[in-house]
Amino acid sequence: MGNKSRLFGLSCILLAYYTYIPIPENIEEPWKMRLIDIFMKIATLTVVLLLPVLKVVHSRSKKKVYIWFTFISVKCVNSYLNGDDDFNTGLFYCGSPSEKLTGKLHCIFMGRDYRLAPQYLFPAALEDCIFAIKFFLQDKVLEKYGVDPARICISGDSSGGALVGSVTQLLQDDPEYRNKIKTQAMIYPKLQIIDTWMPSYREYKDGPFLSRKLAIKVSIRYITEDEELPEAILRNEYMPEGSRDLFKFVNWSHFLPEKYKKNHVYREPILGTLNASYPVLLDSRLSPLLVNDSQLQKLPLTYIITCEHDILRDDGLIYVTRLRNAGVPVTHEHIEDAIHGAISFVTAPMYLHSGLRILDKYISWLQENL
Ligand SMILES: *[C@@H]1O[C@H](CO)[C@@H](O)[C@H](O)[C@H]1NC(C)=O
Ligand SMILES: *[C@@H]1O[C@H](CO)[C@@H](O)[C@H](O)[C@H]1NC(C)=O
Ligand SMILES: *[C@@H]1O[C@H](CO)[C@@H](O)[C@H](O)[C@H]1NC(C)=O
Question: What Pfam families does the annotation carry (predicted)?
Answer without folding.
Answer: Abhydrolase_3
